[in-house]
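DATA SHEET
Item: assembly model
Revision: 1
Owner: S.N.
Input lines:
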Amino acid sequence: MTLLAIDWGMLVEKLVLIGAIISVSLLIAMYSTYAERKVAAILQDRVGPDRAGPWGIFQPLADGGKLFFKEEIIPNTSNKLLFVMGPCLAMLTAMMTSAVIPWGNQIHFNLFGIDRYINLQIADINIGVLFIFGVVSLGVYGIMIGGWASNNKFSLMAAMRGASQVISYELAMGISLIALLMLTGSLSMKTIVEQQIQGRLWNVAYQPLGFLLFFICAFAECNRAPFDLSEAENELNFGYHQEYSSMKLGFYLFAEYINMFISSVIMATLYFGGYDMPFVNEANLSVNVAAIVGIVALMAKVFIFIFIFMWVRWTLPRFRYDQLMNLGWKSLIPLALINMFITGAVILWRQG
Amino acid sequence: MSTTEILFWFLSVLALVGATMVLISRNPIHSILWLIVVFFAISGHYILLNAQFLAIVNLIVYAGAIMVLFLFVVMLMNLNSDTEPQKNNWMKIAGAISGGCLLLIMIDVVSGSSDMQNKTAIVKEGNIGLIKVLGKVLFTDYVVPFEISSVLFLSAMVGAVVIGKKEKETPNP
Amino acid sequence: MQALTNRGKSVERKPMTLLERLYLPAIFKGMAITFSHIFKKVPTIRYPEQKRPFAKVSRGLQVLNRDEEGRERCTACGLCAVACPAEAITMEAAERQRGEEHLYREEKYAAKYEINMLRCIFCGLCEEACPKDAIYLSETFAPSNLQRKGFIYGKEDLLIPNPLTHPEEYNKAKGEKAPTTK
């Protein structure tokens, strides 16, 4: 029975890790909806939700409960299978990215006679960054299939807009990342973080322009304001999820928040040192304490990014479609190319 | 059966079923989605062969970009099974014969090739598929074909721009 | 076209400069503005717990007044109904019987007194017309209702609680604008 030649310890460890990461990202996405409303309220001199529980912290639960109990409507003329598949795909692709992100260094587990070092990363594959790109490029399908299966012209148009926007900004995103990858020489997320910890500055110090481009593209990839054209309610009624109701709509909205969370994590990992706490030498701490410090540092960075996402959303008006395309193709991609050339030239010059 | 074997058979069956469904689905959107399933299965095979880079690039380029463009075109043209033109029966027979001939030739070539005989695929080992090795090989041994293909892409891009560019309209008074 | 005021500002349509096309300075300016709002005071009044005081001149729901002995002041003279521009008030008079002196102040009283709150415009003319200070406008307003007939307020809705038997409710319903004359 070679079938059972699996490292059961590793399997259990990874399953627990996957479960933990998925529940944490769901929780954070849930409270992002709350934070979004609170941040919007604070920026607009309002109070925001404050009725459900103290300061309204049970508001996400109330929202979720409401969505669950809403009537499930599947339009008569829609393509039933694909209609249900759309939100599932959106959710799936949103969650899959978290597999290659290093959430912390490692924890030392010594209990019940088991002595293990557990890496806080589901899979340390040597093409981590490319994996993220692959999953992100699949994220379009959730929008497109949902929009098309609704059999509604507005949904279809919104889906087209969303998809074309995501595809166009993926290019600029990729090229701005290439400059970073030339610097690090590795596609593994873990290695990129380790390099930033070991005595060097964070990557953002070497790649400020690259980071800015990546940041702008992340907004577009998440379909968030000011690039939320696929949800432009004044032109397209509601966007690609117009025909959706109940928790299927909830999944679409939720996937957006998970995307936001994950892209914040990616930005923190690639450009801001990941789980590196500045001015603290993790090597001096014991393994578990260092892991906790690392996770706290990463989460702090992520929350700052999420706040910036929301801050931008409640400040900037939506771009017009032609402005969006002009910005993407005529500004961001040339800038990313220039950034790439400069980085390459500097690397060659320093090598002599 | 080892896990690798189970995965291999699963992915093979998935790929074949997907490929068949691409052909027999009446709805073009369904065909495209089945094609995406095929790409996923093939990427799984690449991973089994320890070619992670190829697997993920296959997904990014084909499933992520080209299939999206396919979907774009089909969705915008609003092709339905109703609007599918009735094909001539002769065309079907001719297609089956020519396709069968191609299949026979392929089988003959593969089984007759001395390179492929008595060889099994290297599973989970070998490092030619890894990105570092692949990059080195591409930029040393195969640099000329690589650059030529990049020139090909560039010319394709230029061609697309030329086609997409609107002709200058004569200014109306 | 001649401008009506000199406040108009003509829109410039010249192409954006490089700095403007970068969008970034404008974006940072806007973000600074929104950020400054974090530190601003929130003007929200959390309604059911906090209430904003009514203005001195506000006119709310009518109240049929009693005197200090708990007797209804209204004598069903009909002046309020005559004064009402919206014709919202109807009443039926009745004569006070022997033994009802503790209920009604005068010999005549309103057996039925109805105000249609859908018609009422809360102008306060009824209060001005009343010679007996029997009706005045308080600080509350008519709550919503699901039926039209729920807006026709009868005597049981309008009459103030008896100050002798229910002093607490009386003080609550009296409000700050009850007439002080006897």
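QC remark: The mean pLDDT of chain B is 81.
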